[in-house]
Amino acid sequence: GDSVTQMEGPVTLSEEAFLTINCTYTATGYPSLFWYVQYPGEGLQLLLKATKADDKGSNKGFEATYRKETTSFHLEKGSVQVSDSAVYFCALTGNYGQNFVFGPGTRLSVLP
Amino acid sequence: DAGVIQSPRHEVTEMGQEVTLRCKPISGHDYLFWYRQTMMRGLELLIYFNNNVPIDDSGMPEDRFSAKMPNASFSTLKIQPSEPRDSAVYFCASSLLAVNTEAFFGQGTRLTVV
Fold this sequence. Notes:
The complex is a heterodimer of chains A (112) and B (114).
Chain A: E1 3-6, E2 11-14, E3 19-21, E4 23-26, E5 32-38, E6 44-50, E7 56-59, E8 62-65, E9 75-77, E10 86-93, E11 101-102, E12 106-111
Parallel strand pairs in A: 2-12
Antiparallel strand pairs in A: 1-4, 3-9, 5-6, 5-10, 7-8, 8-9, 10-11, 10-12
Chain B: E1 5-7, E2 10-13, E3 19-24, E4 31-38, E5 42-50, E6 53-56, E7 65-71, E8 74-79, E9 88-95, E10 104-105, E11 109-113
Parallel strand pairs in B: 2-11
Antiparallel strand pairs in B: 1-3, 3-8, 4-5, 4-9, 5-6, 7-8, 9-10, 9-11
């Protein structure tokens, strides 16, 4: 079945450091790919998405590119802030929004 | 739209009691998902519905768990009897039957079984 693998956390960075969180997937067909963020005590919020190969999703300084050849969707940010401290989930779904599959999540802590 | 609404936000119950969690999806959404989140197992899909019909309940841990969706605007997840190992945050999410759409999550219900 479909699956998502993320790098193990936690990740601890200093403010203004560069962030990469790796995500790879296994899926049939042409899934849509997502990054969700969960702040403490809250539900998951969509951070960005990409729906076809070579698409780049971006939001709040975060970016991820849908790489079909490497089945990857790595999350990057050039300069993290303390407020980016959260858990980040990579996810995929089939073309019609059904059966979302989530990775295990990566906890990010940004120190001032 | 107010988003996905879950109630209660927090529930503390004694072992053996029945617990009912409630969810109101976003109006017009075709899919509804129930997830459980724990430190040990992360985010687990329990069951999802399409147009009020359960499609995949293979994630429901055991017969003590049941979920219903009597209409398009309401779903329940029931645990009877509850056990301490059921303590977790339970999320409801909904999405559209549409190309390339995302799931929208509620704030979750934090369940503690003592």
